[in-house]
Design brief:
alpha/beta; Undecaprenyl pyrophosphate synthetase; 9 helices; 6 strands; 13% strand; binds 3-methylbut-3-enyl trihydrogen diphosphate; binds magnesium ion
Amino acid sequence: MRAVLFLDLCHEGIIGMFFRKNKAITSGIDMDNLPRHIGIIMDGNGRWAKKRGLPRSAGHKAGAESLKKIVTEANNLGIEYITVYAFSTENWKRPQAEVDYLMNLLMDYLINAEKTLAGENVRIRAIGSRKELSEEMQEQIIKTEKLTRDRTGIVMNIALNYGGREELVNAAKTLCRKAAAGELNPEDVTEKDMDDGLYTAGQPDVDLLIRTSGEQRLSNFMLWQVSYAEMIFVDKAWPDFKPKDLHECIKIFQGRGRRFGGI
Ligand code: IPE
Ligand code: IPE
Ligand code: MG
């Protein structure tokens, strides 16, 4: 017990620890039963803007602000992994001007995240297919990942040109290549082998999946990793989703009985 406490103090600092415990008490979150990995389908930016008579781009801008606050809060709470759906493999179907706006916004987010999330100790990774992204974006992803690699806080996966099916096809290709090279017997393929071929290799499955804006579908998000995730669909649009809403979702998660097929 003493050793654990000592390690805690070294890791977080006395002030940080006091702050966290206090905050947890006020919000009613059980700090011993936190989801390790939260996935968020950040939806409803366009409708949020439309309701206010603004262009869709204004919704995306407000959504990026929301994202900063939520990641910061998740990190403060001690969540280990957060994956946010920023751009799907299907989102290229949108008007070119909107695609361009989203790409610029994501680029800015990556550049600024180095600074704004530095104090938060957030490790940033991009998941998804990179080859379709601009060279500039690909370079920035490598840069941001490298600069934040040694941080010790939450791991933030930004799903960017991400599709769950593309990810699974990609994992299957890796296994096929190994089999063709004689390094792997197809009969011996395990779930772990599939897992190792995903963008999230080595990370725990998603425990809690949140989708905003009232839609109740996965839209090709983390098909493998959400197998046993608790899903929460929130009516609010993403720009209206506040840290207190994240607290509410975690409390709902903690009230659910997860059985994983058992009794
Ligand atoms: C989510 O908001 C952001 C992205 C998909 C990039 P939307 O742009 O999908 O907003 P709605 O669903 O049209 O309101
Ligand atoms: C899912 O939202 C993708 C992201 C949040 C990035 P969409 O708005 O693209 O999903 P659909 O089209 O409503 O299923
Ligand atoms: Mg949408």
